[in-house]
Amino acid sequence: RTQKIIMKSWAKDFADIVFPAIKEERFSVLYSDNKFSRSNTPVNIIIGALMLKENLGLTDDELLASICCDVRFQYALHTTHLEDQPVSDRTFSRFRERLYNYEQETGKDLLKEEMKSLNETYSKFMNLHRSIKRMDSLMIASNCKRMSRLEILYTTVANAVKLLQKHGLTDRIPEELQHYLNTEDHNDVIYYCKGDDVSSRLDKVIQEAIQAKDLLDDDSFRDTSEFQLLIRVLHEQTHTDENGEVTAKDKSEIQSTSLQNPSDPDATYRSKAGKQHKGYVGNIIEAVGEEGDSLIDDIQYEQNVHSDSDFCKEYLSGRDDHAPKETMITDGAYNSVENQELAKSKNVDLVSTALTGQQPDEIFKDFQLSEDGKSVTSCPMGHIPVKTTYYPKTGVCRAQFDKCHCENCPYKDSCKGKEQRKTYAVHVSTKMVLRAKYKEKLSTEEYQKLAKMRNAVEGIPSVLRRKYRVDDIPVFGLLRSKTFFTMKIMAYNFNKLRRSLSRQRVESAQLSTMA
Fold first, then answer.
1. What is the secondary structure of 151-178 as a DSSP string?
2. Using an 8 Å Cβ cutoff, are 135 and 328 in contact?
3. Residues facing 387 on adjacent strands
4. Distance CA 149, CA 234 (A)
5. 43-56 vs 60-69: helix axis angle to the nearest 10?
6. Phi and psi for 26 in degrees, rounded to 5?
7. CB within 8 Å of 325: residues ≥ 6 apart
8. Which residues are paired to 138 by β-bridges?
9. Total Cβ atoms within 10 A of residue 99
10. In this structure, what DSSP letter does residue 187 have?
11. Phi and psi of 396, rounded to 5°?
């Protein structure tokens, strides 16, 4: 009876489809090739277990207990025949560490490669052709504490001073920096600080940071993270005048890429849609099937200052020139003239639901420009300009047309020509012409239908936040948090596969009943 229940659960789908599809050979580079070394835990068991962990919302400890005690997990991972389960309390953390070190050394993301490989398998079972895709991004919060400028500087200096103490060099710490070793000093400096005192305390901590930098500026400490972060925070938060005096920068001069917290040096700051974000951004490329099935086909993960337009450009640039034709549906933030041109060269039809920025009048689509885009050859009425001036900095052409042609022209107001003594001057650029043509293209029934298909992708960020808790990733750093994000996407895709297979089984049962 127990076996029958298992066969009807998620364990059977995982055991029959997902587990055999995980390519263990891909991860052989993470382990020793010495045949006399101790054998590793099979990677398909590790990856399979981590996917189940994310799908069921477990911790590493809960996952370990489930594998050891729950026959469903053992069935899904093909370990029911083993007397002892081949996992320990360090198995999963060591595997993630190996992935992190390998990507740091080579730049290759093995887990993402495996995700895309599994998608090939899923697509066959779901009858998903993946010729239509849609794209969306979501902010992913870092779990590091939000800090003020004063606290960032203070913590960085404190870490540097404590590094000397850790190495038994307390005697090298001057009296002015001894207070950083006091456990109550943080509260005294940060929390018991009145608003009027912040500026003076900030200046004091900056001077102490310079002292700490000089103490660590030797071969023993130059490569430590404490010294590197101290150098970075001084560069980002201060400036030096002609006399060599170091003072705090004005708030408006602080970049969004500046250090947000020494615990997570990769996290960046961004304000979007009226909300403040500290951390990273994930970009999702979802493949859409004809019957409503969908799958996250690819992902990108960067600091949150990375723009949607850059995500689109990178995705298109990485696409093979001879890949099959593809339709990509995005919102206006992904669209630009450069991306449209790149999409054409990559055999991609880039469809945006809206255009951001100032929109040119549709009449500009009928302006004719030279091949290099540096001169206007004719206006929508076919008149040739008497003079054209090109401005390289802006890429705009200033075309002057005879007054007799423009005064009674029906498009006079649309062109926004400025009356001169003998002519009318119209400003036109290649971008304006291309945007006007694209605007007309978006108004067609075919493109309106495609644009409506994008709405469903807006729900994915909500699912990733509520079910997969992407804002509660328990590690710091871009690469480490990306590993967790990728695993959550792999778990999400497995859930989509299960739903598709369930629907197919229901339809098959209905057809059998009718027959």
1. HHHHHHHHHHHHHHHHTT-GGGS-GGGG
2. yes
3. 400
4. 11
5. 110
6. -55, -30
7. 131, 347, 348, 349
8. 282
9. 21
10. I
11. -105, 140
Pick the closest to residue 442 from 285, 332, 343 (CA basis): 332
CA-based nearest residue to 434, from 313, 352, 340: 340
The DSSP symbol for 446 reads H
Buried b (16+ CB within 10 A) or exposed e, 110-128: bbbebbeebbeebbeebeb
SS3 256: coil
The burial class, CB within 10 Å (0-12 / 13-18 / 19+), for 232 is middle
Counting every residue written for the chain, the total comes to: 515
Q: Which residues contact 514 (CB under 8 A, 6 or more apart)?
A: none
> What amino acid occupies position 475?
V
Q: How far apart are CA 138 and CA 59, in angstroms?
A: 24
Alpha helices in 245-350 (DSSP H): 308-317, 337-345
Cα(122)–Cα(134) distance, rounded to whole angstroms? 18
DSSP-H helix ranges across 276-429: 308-317, 337-345, 403-406, 412-415
Six-digit token string for 336: 């630009």
Contacts of 257 (CB under 8 A, 6+ apart): 268, 269, 303, 305
pLDDT at site 450: 77
DSSP class of residue 24?
A: G
Q: CA-to-CA distance for 111 and 483, rounded, in angstroms?
A: 7
Task: Decide if 76 contacts 48 (C-beta within 8 A).
Answer: yes
Residue 27: CB partners within 8 Å, gap ≥ 6?
43, 110, 114
Q: What is the pLDDT along the chain (515 residues), one digit of tens a residue?
A: 444 444 456 888 899 999 999 999 999 999 988 877 788 899 999 999 999 999 999 999 999 999 999 989 999 999 999 989 999 999 999 999 999 999 999 999 999 999 999 999 999 999 888 889 999 999 999 999 999 999 999 999 999 999 999 999 999 999 999 999 998 888 888 877 665 578 888 999 999 999 999 999 888 899 999 999 999 999 999 998 888 888 999 988 999 999 999 999 999 999 887 889 999 999 999 999 877 789 999 999 999 999 999 999 999 999 998 889 999 999 888 888 789 889 999 999 988 876 666 677 778 888 888 888 888 889 988 899 989 999 988 888 999 999 888 888 888 888 888 888 889 999 988 888 877 877 777 777 777 787 778 888 889 999 999 999 999 999 999 999 999 999 999 999 999 999 998 888 888 888 777 76
Residue type, 189: V
Phi, psi of 245, rounded to the nearest 5 degrees: -80, 130
